[in-house]
Amino acid sequence: MQEDPEGQEFSDLASAEENAMASAKEILAEELLHGRPLRTGLTFEIFDENRNLVLRFPFALAAEKAGAPP
Asked: Which InterPro entries match (predicted)?
């Protein structure tokens, strides 16, 4: 697991989820372009300012769901 010490701020949870999906899609696309296996077992964990877990976004969901291109 890697932690992003700076993090990002979002106006709401839906915005955070949209960003997680776009980021996961970008990572998966890069893996495909470089001939690497897809790591669909990865998950983004999103925490609030008090370090409470508010969302788990699995990469597998990004691979299955339509969304904005990365």
From this structure: DUF6894
